[in-house]
Amino acid sequence: SYEMDSTEFVEILKETEDYQEPTNVDVDIFGYTKDWEEISLAYRTSQSFTCEECGLQITDPFDRQYIHTHHKNGNKTDNRLSNLQCLCLRCHAQVDEYHRHNLMERGANRIIFQEFKDKYIDNDLP
Predict the structure, then answer these.
(1) What's the predicted TM-score (pTM) here?
(2) Where are the alpha helices (DSSP H) in the chain?
(3) In angstroms, rounded to a whole number, what is the distance separating the alpha carbons of residues 36 and 93?
(4) What integer pLDDT is reported at residue 22 of this predicted model?
(5) Which secondary-structure segment (H or E) carries 68?
(6) What's the CA gap between 95 and 46, in Å, rounded?
(7) What distances in angstroms separate CA 29 from CA 26, 72, 76, one per listed residue?
(8) DSSP code of 106?
(9) Model confidence over 42-62: pLDDT tens digits?
(10) For helices 97-104 and 107-120, what crossing angle results, to 10°?
(11) How far, in Å, CA of 80 to CA of 83, rounded?
């Protein structure tokens, strides 16, 4: 039976889309890359500020804060297109408990979520 060594394994890994060379990335205090705002805006623009989960489209430029760019794998420095997803606040909050708490219950986010809910979502939905 054949056993591959670690060098061969790494080469195979590199061929898969999910592999990313470890790098020292300059991040902000929240763990996002320094160019995250530009990347996020460009991605949301490319998706026409439309939630990829529920289809809600935000057309009012003043309401663009209600559409986020989500990192699917949770790695805030992995800005590959395949790892990004355009989500409205409600769908972003439904990703997991961390996102729900962060987007619906923490400080100013709670107020922003309520404004979003009042403007775009039926009042009986969480």
Answers:
(1) 0.76
(2) 6-15, 36-46, 89-93, 97-104, 107-120
(3) 20
(4) 52
(5) strand 67-71
(6) 22
(7) 10, 20, 12
(8) S
(9) 999 999 999 999 999 999 999
(10) 90
(11) 5
